[in-house]
Specification:
46% of the residues lie in helices and 13% in strands. It is α/β, with parallel strands linked by helices.
């Protein structure tokens, strides 16, 4: 199955999710499941098929504490942050479409979104669900919670 979002569709879906939830002050995503750092670490030990999507900026992904092992960088935070510039946003959406195609094999598998503190990853999970991904969860507490627990990270180049 192919990702069925054209640029206009992707732009609309991202803008709709962001504006309807964040700008209106609705920070609740009741239909987005969360997974704790402990649960995710356990899952990593079992070798189950899942996809980790790190939504932080590319710079955050590469620096500081690094990122979770095998996490793929899909900087949705940068894309949403570019909403003020139509030209920049269109370029980011085009990039996002390509990245969604690269993770197409995980459409029916578990996907875990990651942000710094766990809030934006809820938005990212909703965006992924809007794009047709079936089992999307948000990492509760985000990357910061993961790092504070002392779970493994890596600083390898962008995945």
């Amino acid at each position: 199955m192919e990702v069925r979002l054209n640029r206009r569709g992707m732009l609309f879906k991202i803008a709709r999710v962001v504006t309807s939830k964040l700008i209106k002050g609705e920070y609740s995503f009741p239909h987005v499941a969360e997974i704790s750092a402990e649960e995710l670490f356990e899952k990593m030990q079992t070798g189950q098929a899942y996809l980790l999507i790190d939504t932080r900026s590319r710079e955050e992904y590469r620096s500081g504490f690094g990122h979770l092992p095998d996490a793929k960088s899909l900087p949705l935070m940068e894309i949403v942050g570019s909403l003020g510039s139509a030209q920049k946003f269109k370029a980011r959406v085009k990039e996002l479409e390509q990245q969604f195609r690269e993770v197409e094999d995980f459409r029916d598998k578990e996907v875990v979104t990651i942000c710094p503190g766990g809030g934006f990853s809820l938005v990212a999970a909703e965006i992924m669900a809007e794009a047709g991904f079936k089992d999307v969860k948000s990492l509760a507490g985000g990357a910061d919670g993961w790092f504070k627990k002392g779970y493994p990270t890596t600083k390898e180049t962008e995945a």
